Structures are given as structure tokens and as C-alpha cells.
Fold this protein.
Amino acid sequence: MARRWTVEESILVNAPRERLYSAVADVRAMGRWSPECRAVWVPRPPVRTGRGFVGFNRKGPFVWFTWCRVVRAEHAREFAFDVSTFGLPVARWGYRFEPVADAGAEGAGGGGTKVTEYWQDLRTGPGARFTELLGLVFTGTPAGRRADANRTGMRTTLRRIKDAAER
């Protein structure tokens, strides 16, 4: 099976995209949504395009941190950030928010939002082998299986965002 370099997952949420965007763009809350991220430190809030933050992550016995930089912050449309470690690119994570006529909730009385989380592996070019090795050491997941692990994590993240937004 060939290595996958991108993954996307979507969910329909009975909430306005403005509220969902705000929830995701508050990266300090990512520890509540993601099964791997435990906390985020933002040295210079607020987070917007060009600003960075540190993600503290855990998967089983493995603990690691990453440096992240926001590359897209289009209110109510898209939020994305690039992840690096030791100055080397690792991945791009992002969220897109699309209005839908009916999010499927009984009695919702109108629209909702399709939330799509996406991931792109950026471990290419010089340093790629090193970042793949770091990924294995830090996460316990080889690069060739990272897409599957991320797909599972995305489903959990999106479900948690949906549950919180629809309360």
C-alpha cells in the first residue's frame, strides 16, 4: 500500500460556522478536541496568520512538543497551521467551514456547517528522513502509518467539536 500524504474527514454540525471557526481558532482549546494534543501555549495571543504557538502532545507513553505557525485564518471559512519540529517541516493541519442547508439535526430549523479537518504530510526534501525518525520516536507511529492514525484522530476531534457545539 502506498503512503498517503493527505487525509480529510468531515462532519455535519448543527451550529453556525462563525461559532465553529472561533472554537477551532482558539488553539488553546485544542487539548479538549484532539486525542493527541494535551495543551497549547500561545506566547503572543491572539493567534492569527503568521503567529506561532507550541503544541504539547501525548500518545500512550510518548510525549512531544511541536512549534506551529498559523498560515491561514479566514474567519468562518478556514483555519490552518504548519507544524515543525527542530525547525523542520512536519505537517499542515487545517479546518474548513462550509454552510449547509440542513445539518441533519431534528428540529434544527435551518442550517448548519460542514466542518472538514485536513492534514498534509510536509516531511519531504532535505531533512525528511530525520523528521520521519523523530515522528517514530516521539509518536510511536511510522511515517507510512501516520495517515491512518491521523484519520482516526480526526474522527475523534470532529466528534468532540460537534458534541460541544450542539450542547
The helical segments are 17-25, 30-33, 128-139, 143-165.
